[in-house]
Amino acid sequence: MSAALELASVRKSFGNTEIIRGVDLAIPQGERHALIGPNGAGKSTLFNLMSGRFPVSAGAIRLNGEDITGLKPFQINRKGLSRSFQVTNIFHNLSVFENLRCAVLWSLGYKYSFWHRLNGLADARARADEVLEAIGLASRRERPAGLLTYAEQRALEIGITIAGGAGVVLLDEPTAGMSRSETAHVVELVRQVTEGKTLLMVEHDMGVVFNLADRISVLVYGEVIATGTPEEIRASAAVQEAYLGTLHKAEDGAHA
Amino acid sequence: MRYQPVNLGRWIVWSFTVLLMAVLPLVFSQGFAITLLSQMGITIIFALSYNMLLGQSGMLSFGHAVYSGLGAYIAVHALNLASKGQLWMPVSLLPLVGGLAGAFFGVLFGYVTTKRAGTTFAMITLGIGELVYNCSLMFPDFFGGEGGITTNRVVGQPFLGISFGPAIQVYYLIAVWTLISMALMYAWAHTPLGRIANAVRDNPERAEFVGYDTQKVRWLTLIISAFFAGVAGALACITFEIVTAENVGAIRSAGVLIAAFIGGVGFFFGPIVGACLFVYFFAALSDHTKAWLLYLGLFFMAMVMFAPGGIASLLMMQLPVIARKRFKELVPHYARTGAAALLLLAALVLTVEMTYKVSVDSANGTAMKLFGVEFDAAGLEPWALAIGLWIVGGGLFRAAWKRLSQAWGEIQADIAESRA
């Protein structure tokens, strides 16, 4: 079986600066994979390449064996890859429920229909309410999304991402800026909603990474320097040197 | 479940609208009033179609008259062909012809304009508007040059006594088309495309990541909007029996923007209110004063600055207050603020009219009549009165406004507290 998501020698330059310098990565079906690395390593850029937000400079990206290089975001989404954003990216003036309903309409085949009555679509309503329940925002159903608390907006962000039922889910720092208890809640949420799916996530919280991920890839200066199970990554000297080490040094420095 | 197949409130509102449109011409039966009501109907369709772009999809168009105007041109030619007997078509279906023409040009121009959103979209619509306006002067065979194309709406034999000769028959034709268009545009807002248009307005980037081609959403929305603009154009063609370059011009495009905005783009009924007010301004005020465009401009500016949500949002803001039975506390404040505002308005009108009289219209002397009082605009007393009105009105307004905002703030705080 082909990998759910596969990157082959992917490169990306902005002007003369090469941000992604030949990344090879293969994520098998059903795996929960974490992408870690220091700030500026190119993690978010890699997400933007995979989801079609930016075009790649060289290399190929395959989704379930199919080449998706150069496709537009909506085309990639329709093929079953969905992503969340590091900075919350929701429909601010629409209610929470409408946010989720918008996210399910295409996947249910309603496309650009102007001959269906929205409130008559029982399946769209049921699916949106199901996701609403899953992300724990049932009590906020009618509230405009822009008025939610930060943590609630982050949960909605995940909800919009998974609502369409994509098989491959990319989450960009789902726990960024959250308290410890909120983080624990999000970890459970992510575990639950990505059951049976392929997950790739960028995450800074090592607790979350080692807790959720089946395998981890370490990105440093636009290159994957190591891929392996959490144990292997923890034990890898290269990773210690390039990434975890710098973190420890930074912490030591802070204590000194 | 929350879902209600039959919404009672909605039925009441729509029935009341139908009743109102049926009864109004019986109450105001003068020829002038019928024309005014007809124009209101046409402008309602036009403003609602405009708001499909601005309010629902976040597309600021400076060239919407292109679609209503070209719809009107195709309609006028169709009508002339019909009267020559070269085309079978009842006059009552002419708006459909105009609509299809509008949609056709929506397909054509929309493909270019909707490539981009935001400022770029606004700029391109401005360009297309100028392009079409200039074309209308370059191809006199089709557009009729300066004089435009004239027509006669009475075609063939009367059907059940309806010839569309009398203005009242035209009014009811417009009323029926207005109701149909309103209902269809309301329905559109509650379809998958309508909701996704809202999503594209709020956050086009995210819409792309839930599977939607935002360019296509904008294009389809524009085509549907252009259809209704064309319907309005054809109705205007029937009413006035003439179509000129003005119909596709920038002034018409700006007018519909002002109408929709004054009414409020955030609510479906906003542009309806705005259209009625705009037509009233246009028709009623332009008879009484040469400065009516200045008043409209000032009113528009005041709305943009102080009530960017339009009249609709001002009305909707009262609903939570009424629901909590606190509205009667505000009534005296509204009355005081309103009275002070009237003083300021009187000061404005006096100043503007006297200025006009003295600077533009002094050839026939400076004697004038305002609010039923005759006076000399060159005299000192009326100017002193105007200055006095400005000072007194301004002072009273500031005091009343301060107390109103205080009372409003207290009620809002109570409401917020009871919600929490």
Overview of this protein structure:
The complex is a heterodimer of chains A (256) and B (420). Chain A is of the alpha/beta class. Chain A is 38% helix and 23% strand. In chain A, helix 3 packs parallel to helix 5 and helix 5 runs parallel beside helix 6 (180-193). The longest helix of chain A is centred in the C-terminal third of the chain and has 19 residues, at 237-255. In chain A, 43% of the residues are buried. Chain B is 74% helix and 3% strand. Chain B has helices at residues 8-27, 31-57, 65-83, 94-113, 118-138, 140-143, 167-188, 192-202, 204-208, 214-240, 250-263, 270-288, 292-306, 310-323, 327-359, 380-419; strands spanning 149-150, 242-243, 367-370, 373-376. In chain B, strand 3 (367-370) and strand 4 form a beta hairpin. In chain B, helix 8 (192-202) packs across helix 10 (214-240), helix 12 crosses helix 14 (310-323) and helix 15 runs antiparallel to helix 16 (380-419). Chain B starts with 7 loop residues before the first helix and ends with a helix. Chains A and B meet through helix 2 and helix 3 of A and helix 8, helix 9 and helix 10 of B.
Q: Could you say what the CATH architecture of the largest domain in chain B is?
A: Orthogonal Bundle
Largest beta sheet of chain B: what is the strand line-up?
1-2
Counted beta strands of chain B: 4
Q: Spell out the helices and strands of chain B N to C.
A: HHHHHHEHHHHEHHHHHEEH
CATH superfamily of chain A: P-loop containing nucleotide triphosphate hydrolases
Mean pLDDT reading of chain A: 91
Largest interface (C-beta under 8 Å): A-B, 37 and 29 residues
Say what the CATH topology of chain A is: Rossmann fold
What class would the helix/strand composition of chain A place it in? Answer: alpha/beta
Determine the N-to-C terminus distance of chain B.
Answer: 24 Å
Using only CA atoms, what is the Rg of chain A?
19 Å
Structural class of chain B: mainly alpha
What oligomeric state do these chains adopt?
A: heterodimer
Q: How many H/I helical runs of chain B?
A: 16
Number of domains of chain B: 2
What is the H/E order of chain A? EEEHEEHEHHHEHEHEEHH
**Portion of residues in helices of chain B?**
over 70%
In CATH's first tier, which class of the largest domain in chain B applies?
Mainly Alpha
- Cα-to-Cα separation, first versus last residue of chain A: 51 Å
Which strand-content bin applies to the residues of chain A?
Answer: 15-25%
Are there runs of chain B of 5+ residues with pLDDT below 50, and where? none
